[in-house]
Amino acid sequence: MGRDPLWMRTFQVLTGTLLILWLVLPLVPLAIWSFARGWRFPSLLPNQWSTEAWTFAFSARSGVLEALWTTTLIALIATVLSILVGVPAGRALGLYKFRGKGAVELLILAPIIVPGIAVALGIHGVFIALGLTNTLMGVALVHLIPTLPYMTLVMAGIFANYDPAFEDQARSLGASPLQTFWHVTLPAIMPGIIVGGLFAFLVSWSQYVLTLLIGGGRVVTLPLLLFNFVSAGRNDVSGAIGMIYILPGILILLLTARHLSGRSGAVGGFGRV
Amino acid sequence: MTHVSIRDLTKTYAGAAQPSVDRLSLEIPSGELTALLGPSGCGKTTTMKMIAGLLEPTSGAIDFDGRSILRDKPESRGVVMVFQNYLLFPYMSVADNVGFGLRMRGLPKAEIAARVSEMLALVRLPDLGRRRPADLSGGQQQRVALARALIVRPKVLLLDEPLSNLDAHLRLEMRDLIRSLQKDLRITTIFVTHDQEEAVVLADRVALILDGRLRQYDRADLFYRRPRDEAVARFFGGQNFVRGEVRGETFEGPLGRLALPPGLTDGHALLTIRPEAIRLGPGPNALEAQVVDRIYLGTQTRLRLRIGEVPLEAVVSPDAAEGVEPGGTMTVHLPPGALWAMGEGP
Per-residue pLDDT tens for A218-263? Predict the structure, then answer.
């Protein structure tokens, strides 16, 4: 096995560097802003440094910690609900043939294709009638619109490579339906639940419009708070909140880079559509 | 020790015009090893799954020792099915696979561990408990699957094509293992196969199923010597069929008058003789045959013969076929004891 030619290696290093810069560079001013007291054009760096923004962000006055908690709770609820719906839906799509399967697949994808706000406007009316507007639960429910397609597609990919005869085998060896699910089905689909669940968590974490519409400004999540400070021109506080805001994404990316590389087959669902 | 009684068992899948299993009735004596034999898609596996409780019959009854089991859930029937591809749980060690059924029954850990090592020794894999199934050979996986089934002491053991995934030399080894375990533990065992050789070498009794219907249910050797009709005979490699008339101990037909063994029913009949029962040289029922073709098969030689207009096939040892050339003629004889006259079939 010879090594790739020089121009190929150069190309690889170059594109890799570009990609990392593309992702990381926008975050640099954000980080600098969070420690800046004043930073005027055309200075390359702030005139004065300070940790004031961070102190403020972690104070009760700013509401950041409360919003962090609200965002986490909503994302967790949306993730759990996505798993509860997405696993059986993915099983049906991955394992069985039935009439209208193509239409169902399209409908599940629809929230990714159709702008969420169009759907949410319709749901808004329904949620008013049900008393779900301005509530945390209502926001978590509406987040299912964008989270469910990811969860369902990941699970459909998992189940397409799954042999349900293992369940027959377990039953035949004396396992009850519940035991069969716990000891046989769940371990087999766990990679999909983890990857799909992380997707769902991040998608819910980054919702702005749906939260604003259904939460009516009463349910304040981090992106809403961030937007407030951005519109108010508080670049330093926005920088600090922004840093907090991107933290789960980076953590999850680091933890699951292996699964997301496509080698595990856990994201096979995307290949099917 | 469980007597299995199947009566008029029928399964028609939703949307199918023909039933997959059509009014199947079988009595499987306690402790016997019975083969369900038939071509692929003849309803054998469907029958097994109905016994195991993994499929619901459309109609009919299945009794164990006179008690219907159709209402029992799969996990409480005392039936364990071993699938053709073994289905070892890939994320469990071999020992955890074997102990699975006992864990589901909530047995204490120490007892499970003891019974697992006992069972692994029984299938001659004593040191592999900590391996993963993927690290085992096909034959070893098969034995683990067998151990996992036997450890729960099933009343009835179901095996799906137990030898078909194995190499020739492993087949004999596995056959001996299955037979000796089955005789020692005296578990009523039913296995399905499409391979008549597999059925014959393994089973006490064979149930031949063609097109979802039971065609013959007998000791294995009788399928060769006493087939019920032409389809059964052909499934077991029968080649020679001659139409004619049985009168007492003679048969009148295109081969002239042949002597028959006593006890055959008078009337129209289809006469058959196994290719390997035809003898070369003079003897009772001697005939002058034209040699059409000679096919060397290694341990045997197959001769295509023609007697008048009647084609016959004979299988003889290569030594006996020495000097027999296509185009020549020779004397063969049909020993009366090897002749069998059957009804002309459905």
Answer: 899 999 999 988 898 888 888 889 888 988 888 887 777 665 554 4
My answer on whether B158 and B292 are in the same domain is no
Amino acid A167 reads E
Selected residue of A97, A172, A179, A184 to mutate for chain B interface (largest B Cβ count, 10 A): A172
Least confident of A218-222, A268-272, B114-118: A268-272
Residue in B75, B83, B98 to test binding to A, most A beta-carbons within 10 Å: B75
Q: Do residues A172 and B81 lie in contact, with contact meaning Cβ atoms separated by under 8 Å? A: yes
Task: Please name each of the domains of chain A with its CATH number.
Answer: 64-271 (1.10.3720.10)
Cα three-residue angle A45-A47-A49, rounded to 5 degrees: 90
Q: Structure pTM? A: 0.79
What is the spatial distance between Cα B133 and Cα B72, in angstroms, rounded to a whole number?
A: 31
Residues A158-192: pLDDT tens digits? 999 999 999 999 999 999 999 999 999 999 999 89
Structural domain harbouring B260: 238-343
Q: What is the DSSP string of B47-74?
A: HHHHHHTSS--SEEEEEETTEE-TTS-G
Q: Are residues B206 and B136 in the same domain?
A: yes
For residues B243 and B211, membership in a common domain is answered with no
CA of residue B25 relative to chain centroid, distance: 17
ipTM higher than threshold 0.85 = no
Q: Which residue has the higher pLDDT, B345 or B104?
A: B104
B67 shares its domain with B177 = yes
Would you list which residues of chain A are within 8 Å, Cβ to Cβ, of chain B?
A: 163, 165-166, 168-176, 179, 183-184, 187-188
Q: How far apart are the first and last CA of chain B?
A: 36
Same domain, B190 and B285: no
Count of residues making up chain B:
346
Select from B198, B225, B252 the last residue of a domain.
B225
Q: Centre a 10 Å sphere on the Cβ of residue B284 and count the other Cβ atoms it contains.
A: 12
Separation CA B5–CA B71 (nearest Å): 15
Task: Work out the average pLDDT over A81-100.
Answer: 92
